[in-house]
Amino acid sequence: MASQDNIITSFYSYQDVLGEEQRVREEIYVIVKNLEAKCRELSTLHQRIHFESGLGDFGQLVIHSKKLLMEVYPLMSELVSRVPAGQYYKYHDSWKYVMQKLVFAVALMHFLGTKKLLLKEDAAEFLNVENERSDGFHLDLEDYLHGLLSLASELARLAVTSATAGRYDLPMTISKLVSEMNAGFMLMNFKNDALRKRYDALKYDQKKIEEVVFDLAIRGLKPKE
């Protein structure tokens, strides 16, 4: 039977553990707040794609996006250094939402520059983190998928604004990419309720894009392939 002294000593050690965990969470919180601020800057920049001036110059938007992402790298390195080895998922809830936003921002930048879908390994490289879970602080798969689903919603909006502005080629490119994305998601069996609900929204995004393409076709504005 444990003596009273042993019990007191044990509870002191428990308090030390809880205190250390709280210290780590507070340090992570500060870094994540700074990352959130960078996400807002990226979001503000990317809204220019819906303006006529932005539609005509994706190249400059990509250049400015990359400059902002350069400011994200040291924050990500700081975050990685604050998370104790082997405890990634213990603290994952602290940064998962900002990571999803960053994946979306990088995926949109990648699309504007290449008209292609950003793969997970490329997203991890852009964000200066590992791709594989076994390698430590990594890009979680569900965070990556959430980012792609946000991209689909933004591209559905871009399909409308670009068609209105006379960029009739862009809805076709968007339609092809989102259709391929949807085909990929259809292969997955979602266990995560939040991810499944977001995937349901992808179907509506695709339908919205298809309506834009159909409208261009019946008006004789669909570019020849």
TrEMBL record:
Claim: Magnesium is one of the keywords in the record: yes
Biological process per Gene Ontology, one example term: RNA metabolic process
Binding site for Mg(2+): 154
Alphabetical UniProt keywords: Cytoplasm, DNA-binding, Endonuclease, Hydrolase, Magnesium, Metal-binding, Nuclease, Nucleus, RNA-binding
GO MF assignments: endonuclease activity; hydrolase activity; metal ion binding; RNA binding; sequence-specific DNA binding; single-stranded DNA binding
Any Gene Ontology CC annotation: cytoplasm
Main location: cytoplasm
Cellular compartment(s): Cytoplasm; Nucleus
Origin: domain of life: Eukaryota
Function according to Swiss-Prot or TrEMBL: DNA-binding protein that specifically recognizes consensus sequences at the breakpoint junctions in chromosomal translocations, mostly involving immunoglobulin (Ig)/T-cell receptor gene segments. Seems to recognize single-stranded DNA ends generated by staggered breaks occurring at recombination hot spots. Exhibits both single-stranded and double-stranded endoribonuclease activity. May act as an activator of RNA-induced silencing complex (RISC) by facilitating endonucleolytic cleavage of the siRNA passenger strand.
Subunit structure: Ring-shaped heterooctamer of six TSN and two TSNAX subunits, DNA/RNA binding occurs inside the ring.
Family designation: Belongs to the translin family.
Name this protein carries in UniProt: Translin
Species annotation: Nesidiocoris tenuis
